[in-house]
Write a structure and sequence with these properties.
single chain, alpha/beta, 5-stranded parallel sheet, 4-stranded antiparallel sheet, 15 helices, 18 strands, 35% helix
Length: 500
């Protein structure tokens, strides 16, 4: 539409109003033509929308971006306008500042009234409201001036730019998700692969789900409340103060910092605690509250991707153990710390561990978890059994259910083990001490790790003195290097489980 066409429409609209003597005061509702002065120069505009676009294109001052950046409300907007009028800053200084320069109540004091202060700032970036002179939601064409149309176009343009930013962010998130998915699919889950997959080979972004699971206080309350675990570390550290005194310590996966504080109390020279989980920020507060901040230096990051202030340390401490000892794959990080940061004559804690297997019989629990699916409110749901039986179950096993002597499956020397430690095959013989039915699960004092129970599809009838022979194979998952596949063979029966 050219200038001539625009003028013709304007003439027709005005003529229609003038010719209508029954317009009931429509003339009083026309735009007053009040001018809006630019915030940074002397130019004036018919509407704030046009002035905003001028500020954005000529002064690189985008009010919508500032609103989002500082989460501004109408009061913050008023303070900003008064600040600009009083201080007359360069727009570049406002845009590049990391703080809201107008964040002072002195700029709430009323100054000279102007159209900027009458602007409905809360509507910036939202849909434009229906004009106040609309009738039944329909705007008379005679009252739509060129300036009003231009204002609406400018507001819609601002909205569109805002939506474009959101869309761009969403596209970036989708791209990252595609990259992670591609990594998972290409890796597969080949149990017989010779690839030395380990935690350090996993992108940090893909590993965040694991670390986020340690951000909540609940899991730390459970671990700290585990007296067997916590007091064992405390006694080992404080009972060997001569070993820790004056030494440099690295606490791998420090969590709330409890081991770091034990080491500091043992008169260590300095303790470096590292954790990728957000709980590290609470650990920093805990350390300060206990006046140990001069000895304990906490670092947020994954060890494999983070630079430690001192290349070599005298002692490495870590509570890296997971369910079935090896689940979660934190042994990889402990090995990495040992190989990269421990001095040749350094000390590690713990230094040895093992996995044991025992047989147990708990028919009531077997009925609850396995036989339950045979008849569920009169319906056959046996197909669910395969899913239930394929998952190793973490629970507390009662001492009275143990029916065999324990058998050690594997022993780990933490000074010499490598990242292939989770992959092992072990033959076992379990000597039955009671004549009852059989399922598997370790026999230890109750800790927050509890025991890992492998339910058998079919129970075994045994008598006292019977020897149950078989093999247990453990392999690291490829898709999830922190997970494990476990296979148990007894006679002709083969049972497969996952810890994932």
């Amino acid at each position: 539409m050219g200038d001539t066409d625009t003028q013709a429409i304007t003439d027709v609209c005005v003529g229609s109003i003038e010719d209508n003597e029954d317009s009931d005061g429509w003339d009083e509702m026309e735009v007053t033509g009040e001018q809006t002065t630019c915030l940074f120069c002397s130019l004036q505009f018919h509407t704030i929308a046009v002035a905003l676009d001028h500020c954005r294109t000529e002064h690189n001052f985008d009010l919508l971006e500032l609103k989002t950046k500082y989460n501004m409300d109408c009061y913050s907007f008023i303070k900003m306008i008064n600040y600009i009028r009083k201080v007359k800053p360069d727009p570049k200084m406002i845009i590049e500042s990391s703080i809201a320069l107008w964040d002072s109540d002195e700029y709430l004091k009323p100054g000279e009234m102007e159209s900027w202060l009458m602007y409905d700032f809360d509507d910036l970036g939202s849909a434009p409201s229906t004009p106040h002179y609309a009738i039944d939601g329909k705007t008379p064409i005679s009252n739509i001036t060129y300036a009003e149309l231009q204002r609406q176009i400018q507001e819609l343009t601002v909205q569109l730019r805002h939506k474009d930013v959101l869309l761009q962010n969403a596209m970036q998130d989708i791209s990252k998700m595609k990259q992670v998915t591609r990594t998972i699919v290409e890796a597969g889950d080949l149990l017989d692969t010779n690839t030395n997959a380990c935690v350090s080979s996993v992108p940090v972004g893909y590993d965040n789900e694991y670390f986020n699971s340690y951000s909540h206080f609940g899991i730390h309350h459970e671990m700290l409340n585990d007296k067997v675990r916590t007091e064992s570390y405390r006694d080992a550290i404080l009972g060997n103060m001569n070993v820790f005194r004056g030494k440099t310590i690295l606490d791998v996966g420090c969590g709330t910092g409890i081991l770091s504080m034990f080491a500091a109390k043992a008169d260590a020279k300095i303790v470096y605690g590292i954790d990728q989980s957000d709980v590290i920020y609470k650990a920093m507060e805990i350390v300060r509250e206990n006046n140990l901040h001069e000895k304990i230096h906490l670092i947020k990051g994954r060890l494999e991707d983070t630079v430690i202030p001192e290349e070599s340390v005298d002692i490495i401490i870590s509570e890296w153990m997971g369910y079935f000892l090896l689940f979660e794959g934190m042994l990889d990080s402990f090995i990495y710390a040992r190989d990269k940061h421990l001095k040749p004559d350094g000390v590690i804690l713990p230094n040895r561990c093992n996995i044991s297997l025992v047989g147990c019989s708990d028919l009531a629990r077997y009925e609850t978890y396995i036989t339950f699916w045979d008849n569920v409110y009169g319906f056959n749901m046996k197909c669910m059994k395969s899913e239930v039986l394929s998952e190793a179950n973490v629970e507390t096993v009662a001492n009275e259910t143990i029916i065999t002597e324990p058998c050690i499956l594997t022993e780990i020397d933490l000074r010499t083990c490598d990242i292939n430690t989770p992959n092992f095959l072990s033959k076992f013989t379990l000597k039955v001490t009671k004549s009852v039915s059989f399922s598997t699960g370790p026999h230890v004092t109750r800790t927050h790790w509890q025991q890992t129970v492998f339910y058998l599809k079919n129970t075994l009838d045994v008598t006292e003195g019977t020897a149950i022979e078989g093999t247990l194979t453990c392999k690291r998952m490829i898709k999830n290097v922190r997970g494990l596949h476990v296979t148990i063979c007894i006679g002709q029966d083969k049972y497969q489980y996952r810890l994932d």
